[in-house]
Amino acid sequence: MQTNAAYDLERFAPREQKPRLRVAGQPKPKRGLARYNLKWIKAVAFASVFLALVCSVLYSQVQSTELSAQIRTQEDTLADLQSEYTYLSNEMEMKTNLSAVQEYATNTLKMVKMDRSQVTYVTTGQENKVERSDTGLARLAGEISQTVASFMEYLTP
Known about the structure:
Layout: H1 38-96, H2 98-107, E1 120-122, E2 130-132, H3 136-155
Antiparallel strand pairs: 1-2
């Protein structure tokens, strides 16, 4: 039998409803962090650890830069002080050099180098007497005075 689709009444017939299945003891959806996927929690934890590491590396770089700048300034200060020390050492050596002291005494203070005749030797013995060595000029004056004295003796009756 041929039926016309316009008059097919089976289409309008009530259908049988499928029974709804319900599983007993199904857990209720979790609240809070547990309802998020564990993958997201791991990603957030990894991102926070990574961010903390990046921040610590940046902080250590800043500290390193500051310390290297301080080292450079201290090295410059040390170089200046070493230069000043070298200058002052040379200055002190020039001023305490024996030939420089003699030249200063001779030229500026108009001092004369001591002659051997100006040296007096003192001996400590039983007698307290001072012996002076005669120099060429003193010896010559002594001989002249002795000669004059003996000549005067010869002239006097």
